[in-house]
Structures
1.
Amino acid sequence: MQNQLKNTRLVATDLDGTFLKNDKTISPKNLQALQRLGELNIIRVAATGRSMHKVCEVLKPGIPFDFVVFSSGAGVFDWQKQQHIFNRNLSQHSVKKLLNYFITEKLNFHAFFPTPENHKHWFYRGDKKCDEFERYFTYNQAFSYELNVNNLPETEMCQFLVIIPEDEKKFSKLKNNIESICPEIRVIRASSPITKGFIWIEVFHHSVSKGNGIKHICEILGIGNEQTVGIGNDYNDFDLLEFTGFSFLTENAPPEIKHLYPNAPSNENDAFASAVQPIVG
């Protein structure tokens, strides 16, 4: 693998739990590795579930990425030119069906504005109190609007976020029900980055994925997926890791999925720098 990695032309990494430390800082070794990749003319991509507004909370100007795949692939941002180059939202038709379903089921959910304004969102409290829902609301209250069930928004949306306590049977049932509503949508599972013991159910356009976001960049630049490396730490990184030619999961990944890819050290121990070491020398 080490010799094959020498042909790498693009490296893509998840941010939270992978490139970033738990306190959301960047380790000196990871930053040095990122800079060295640039010196070797290797494209550097951050692929994250964060909106661009939240990306800018952890990546300050001058951090040497080339592109950002944000909101799990709903948008692609040219970090060097500071401009949006791609977005994919849910259609107004699908949004209406999803809103009606979530309200009827009395689920706790957030509904996000179309990209690139998808840091703003509507919220709806279901019939069962969810502490994790309230924590998320508290962190994002400045951009939250309570959903008026008697006057639902008629617009495209970037995504929905449904938060449930960790329950595999309930997740599987909800996933099947949601994806059966209309063919345009898909469900992506994520572990809560706020509190353990909760599942985040993210609903996007069916073509939205971190892998497709990276594929879009590769097509623009003429890079084959066999020339790419991916690094992630969670369920919502599977699309990324399935696309990239060489893929790694960090040591802090959920135990039940760590065996699926070669392991890098944890995000607290320079996972990114370790994974790209054969490339940068």
2.
Amino acid sequence: MSEQHLLVPQGPGEWIAPLQGSMTVPGRVFADRDTIAQLLADEGTQSQWSALAQLRNVAALPGIVAAAIALPDIHPGYGFPIGGIGAFDVETGVVVVGGVGFDINCGVRLLATPLRYSQIESRLESLGEALFQRIPAGLGAQGELRLTILDLDDLLKRGAEYIVSKGYGFAEDLRFLEEEGCIAGADPHAVSDLAKHRQFRQVGTLGSGNHYLEVQVVEDVLDSESAEAYGLFQDQVVVSIHTGSRALGHQIGQDYLKDMARASAKYNMHIPEPELACAPINSDEGRRYLAAVACGANCAFANRQMITHLVRSAVQDVLGLSPRDIRTIYDIGHNNAKFESHVVDGITRQLLVHRKGSTRAFGPGRDESPPAYREVGHPIIVGGTMGTASYVLRGTDAGMVKAFGSGIHGAGRTLSRKKAAKKYWGETVAAQLLSQGIRLWAHSLKGISEEAPGAYKDIHHVVDATSASGIARAVARLRPLAVIKG
């Protein structure tokens, strides 16, 4: 197929990858022309890291519905593109480890303070230092929470509510978490002993890689009605927490890749490539993996709840705010497989929606949103880079129809971590950030290099492309003030 037919424009910011080869549904790509040009350039080199080729492979998986979808932050992942969505019929479809990834329910929690930037400017250095000292971060970091094997099993079943029950947070926090911080169907017996032992001391830790904690300021309100519903205002100080299920989620991914490879052969399934190993949703293997994914998701919700407690403690010490004055705006994950109800060709269907580097982005009227947000749709928390900005978006009716209620999760990488580490020096990146008024605390200079702003797409362009396509709307832009990295 010629290059000009690999992607056919459909409207502002929307493109279709027509059927070819073993695809059973088309691909649908939401992106600007620069991203499309890069996708086609990668395709032209026949690179193994072609996100467009990965999207076509997803479109060939059994039971996929309507289209395989890619968002403006698309870049290559493990078999399944990051920034990708695949929805599968619950009777004929499959569950795909690569469609969830190794950091199950990695996500972002946004906390709001009642303060304006001018009220904390003189104490920002002290606040950043307190957060850096209080919150364990970095590869293999351990937290203070002591758990037995029975405790951990309880946490995997109950998620964030387990942490709140131990006195770390408030019941009202749970109302503003995706699924109220607990995915149904979690079965700790589906999680290996190795995964559990790797997790015992990691609840309440930030981790490394692209995980971060940022003190931010609301630099611009872009949708006043939605911002008011979320409790956001101009110059407000907020805190973002980006982390996931830590070692437990990674081990679940490793464990089940082997199981899924065997299941693919057992059920004689056509798999476009080995990294998309999968099993029928209703098979023993599929149900067991989904039970483990729910455990991983609940672990991530619990982890972010514990870190929220540590943030509140540090802010209280430095700024004198009561912990109750620091409100959870929302907590949303971006590596999940979840059963959801969606309208397809006028018919409401139950689907298993995989979101790999993509958030749930439900628009107005969905019961899954907290009542306070239901009229506008729940927030989408989008991490940018530590040198640019993050965003709060909201879902739309169009996004519900075109993208199964899914939204972007971040800027999307343009350089691998290995290439970024070769191109950028950690000390230079830190100095550049300081020149922009952004203070950085990190446990690793290599980590700073790998997460240099230049290793990512321009977050403003990614958000603009999302808005142009109509699948989500920008609510507020958040500028980093203090960054904590592993």
3.
Amino acid sequence: MRGSSTRQAAKAAAVTERWDALPKLEVSTKRMLSARIYASEATVEAQHFDILRTKLLLEMRRNDWCRIAITSATPGCGKTTTACNLIAGLGRQPEIRGMLFDLDFRRPAVSKFFGVTPTASLEDVMNEKVAFEDQALRLHDNTLVSMTTRSVADPARVILKSQTADLLDRVQHDYQPDLMLFDMPPVLVSDETRGFLKLVDAVVIVAGAGSSSVAQIDEVEREVAQYTNVAGVVLNKCRFMEDNYGYSY
């Protein structure tokens, strides 16, 4: 028993050391607010994302999920805003480790939201040109972001190759995250999202009020259900609501 406890302690220390070795991503509060990233602070604007974060974590624990993709039917629904707020909000939950990967290689936006351009792109990691630990950046002590800095001409060629599964398994093993978030392209305008879904445990679908039709959301739910679980649907961009009503999950 003592030997087992010692090994577990050594393993936990090694994981913490890997997290601590990652460079820190310095983002100003002003920059995040201008990009509608509210969840890094406990504010009125953040409360709807906090509710989403908590409900998602409860579902993950209940179902033993770790990998969550965030997508939408079409562009402009707010999936990246949702993903960035979720990872920012996890920074206020120090006992939980979270990661955000920008896999929208067609229109990468996470780096723009945070106002930071890393020296290497997630594409470089997936093409084995750069090691993950040399590309990822810590947003908080317990969260990291792996950003894409440029659009990719043939994203399916990169995302759907067999080495992608090995990369994710290795990162999950080395860093032991509680939550791995993937900002994916919209389902109805790309094929790489469908192919990638077999590598995740569940999907959050973001719908834009006034832009996403019920038929589109139904179609996305059916598509997703063929490959993995539907964690829920987030209704975004609701402009005419009571003050005490926010994101629907």
4.
Amino acid sequence: MRSTKQIISCVIIFVAGFLSGVFFAAWKLDSKPAAGVVNPAPPVNQKSSEEIQNRIAGIERMLKQNPQNLEALIQLGNDYFDTGDHDKAVEAYQRALVIAPRNPDVITDMGISYRRLKKPEQSAEAFRKAIEIDPNHVIALFNLGIVLRDDVKDYPGAIEAWELFVQKAGDSPHAVMVKPWLKALKEKTGNEEKPK
């Protein structure tokens, strides 16, 4: 039986990784920042990469003992994402979704990994599923707009996703960032808002 300290350590590691993954997910998807915008994601340094690899090895050992550990599967997916191994990230997220099929955060993270694997249709499908489960999931709306604009070239779909995103995200930094993208896309497609 595990000691209380081991359980608390696992929970703290998971919560910290999960929260940072959720907040970072929207930023890490857009690999083409707007002109003048610096990509806020610094490269993973060697030490943190080694730490992630050690954590992955520990989680894999834990999953051999308990393959139904949802938190461990989600953290494993996030860690594989952070190392750039998106095939393994998708696999871990899929295993987590067998246990919790209606988790919009995991579905969104899987959609981001699909985009990195150059599978935009699967990426868009994942974001749509996350939005179907949680219509207020702003990270999925943000990312759906990016995939539809940049990869699928479905400009009306991107406009629709980003309009919903801006409506739901309010004055968040991401909404401020998306507004000029939305305006430019509307101008490009001849779908500008008419003055009232």
